[in-house]
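Continuing the series of single-chain predictions for the mutant panel. This is the parent chain; the variants come on the following pages.
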Amino acid sequence: MKLQNKLNEAVGNLILFYVKLHNYHWFVKGNQFYRLHNLFEQMYDEITETYDVIAERMLMLNMKPVATLKDSLAVATLKEATGNETTKEMIQQVLNDYKQLDASFKELLVLAEEANDDVTQDIMTSNRAVFQKHIWMLNALLK
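Parent structure:
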């Protein structure tokens, strides 16, 4: 049950993050517009695939993933975009969200190991590699 709850939290966070990245994609401004507009689009496309894989994995394990915005917001630990972020704040928030997702997926990795679920472990590990690459690149962008 703990694994199911944590997987649902992950799905909820990823759905929220998808919406946030879309928001930033639309509303980013300034001299980095073109670069960040494209980056945020790449990120939300990637996140869509990630939450789909996790939700389908839950279904394979006879678990029920959250599937509505209301239910996603109820279990998510990430915060929604305010719509008032500056470009630098957008970058910082995306960085913070990737860090939070990475830590959450690390916890999921442990829970999957305890459940002897090597497939879910693999999903968490491969996604953490992607998250950590984004963390590295966003940190460099802010320097």
